Amino acid sequence: MSTHHGKVMDIDAAMSRVPPGTRLMMGEFVGAGEPARCIEWLLEHRIDRLTLLAVTSGLRGDFLMGKLFAAGLIAEYIGTHVATSNEASDAYLSGQMLVKQIYPMGTWAEMVRAGGMGLGGALVPVGVGILDAPGLFPDMDAPKRTIDINGKTYFVEPALTAEVSIIRGWRADPLGNVEFRYTSTQNQKDIAMAGKFTIAEVSEIVPVGTIPPERVGCPGPFVNAVVQGYSLAEQHKLYRDQWIKLGRLPPVDAV
Amino acid sequence: MKPHQDPRVIIARRCALELRDGEVVNLGIGIPTMTANYLPPGINVIFHSENGCFGFGPKPATLGADSDMSNASTEPVTLLPGAAIMDLATSLGAMRNGYIATSVLGGLEVDQEGNLANWAYKRHGKWWPGIGGGMDLCYGVPRIIAALQHTDKHGHSKIRKRTDLPLTGKRCVKVIITDHAVFDVTAEGLVLREAYPGLTVDNIRAITEADFTVSANFGPMPVA
């Protein structure tokens, strides 16, 4: 560690790496595990013309990443679903946002993983004979390539990388080691590895040695900046409020 | 003649009877998710969620809901003893590579060859809404149960001779469960196994575009 604080940065310093037009990859799954404060920073600073790589297009109902679409900040989306949020759906259908093609989730995950692991791409059998139908994706750059191995046909899907990746973890130390909780593990680590500059937003910043080595979900060398996000209690409230708003949990009467 | 119960509940209840004790099951969003509420006593399955979990359990109380514990629709869930978390690529690999025994999936249309279409229809001239994990399931899960209403809101059959929509999976559906009938998809085509109590084979034929034969064991759906 070169300094006392190591990779811990204030959010303005870290997010200054995300100018308009950035190719940005973000950890999430239909709204879960999203880097809330970094998203709010993008909204406040109106960082636009972004190419967003994310597995889904967020959670509906004016929530975190979905707001980036509503604010018109996303020029292009690369993922598996254009309508998990109503905001992304509107941006897509109105023609405001480009979507060249839509990927099966496992294909997208392997393309990101290939990007993180230094591979050229992934060979994927899913969707062969379906997703290569002429005219299905008119904005696609080039027809999907295939390769036959042992009598079976696979798509050759190129690796996905980003100029900046933003992931969300539970806690991190100044070396950049990140620990995740439960289903927010997702592919945050793969996304961290696929970004040239990676920001980890966490609920707690803990001293080096706090996270047991076997519980490090994303090793520090894959992270460039650690920023303080909402506390776990604040995050629980954020999600419970949204779940109540969407009718997924009953409201709690104020005591 | 029309069934009296909520069609979604009929489908979910009938799907639940199709699950086998001990198997690993993935439920799609919508009606399939409701299936978990109707498991018969003594049938315990391991529910898989594509965001990265085997063994999730019921919804928690509001104040017990954990923002880092949700299913593939981002509804809050609990984790049962024996649950296992995995990363996304692993979870999708499990789907692709045969580690999930059965998946119940919604559908826009299914046809008599067992082709399922559930990810896209044309809206404003564009294919919409998206694929998610559906194609991975159709590719790799040996038993796909298509759970859908028998007809659309205009009364048109969603059980087609051949669907023109982009497919989610080719020849992947093994069982079709609607609010009116249960079909098995066989090499010889669709076989009508059950109809909603009170409905005849002719009633089913009248609302079904696809060709089908009738099983020797044809009988009423045990959901009344």
Describe this structure in words.
- Chain A is α/β, with parallel strands linked by helices and 255 residues long.
- Chain A folds into two domains: 11-100 and 161-245, Glutaconate Coenzyme A-transferase; 106-158, no CATH class.
- Chain A is 24% helix and 22% strand.
- Chain A has helices spanning 11-15, 36-44, 65-70, 86-93, 105-117, 188-194, 232-245; strands at residues 23-26, 50-53, 74-78, 121-124, 145-149, 152-158, 162-172, 178-179, 195-205, 225-228.
- In chain A, the strands form two sheets. In chain A, strands 1, 2, 3, 7, 8, 9 and 10 form a seven-stranded mixed beta sheet that branches. In chain A, strands 4-6-5 form a three-stranded antiparallel beta sheet.
- In chain A, 51% of the residues are buried.
- The mean pLDDT of chain A is 96.
- By secondary structure, chain B is α/β, with parallel strands linked by helices.
- Chain B has a single domain, classed as Glutaconate Coenzyme A-transferase, CATH 3.40.1080.
- Chain B has five helices and 15 strands.
- Chain B has helices at residues 7-16, 31-34, 88-96, 134-140, 201-206; strands at 24-27, 46-49, 53-57, 78-85, 102-105, 109-111, 116-117, 120-123, 126-129, 143-147, 159-160, 173-177, 181-186, 189-195, 212-220.
- In chain B, the strands form three sheets. Chain B has a ten-stranded mixed beta sheet. In chain B, strands 7-6-11 form a three-stranded mixed beta sheet, with no helix packed on it. A two-stranded antiparallel sheet of chain B has the order 8-9.
- In chain B, α3 (88-96) crosses α4 (134-140).
- Chain B starts with 6 loop residues before the first helix and ends with a strand.
- The model of chain B has no long low-confidence stretch (mean pLDDT 96).
- At the A-B interface, α4, α5 and α7 of A face α3, β9 and α4 of B.
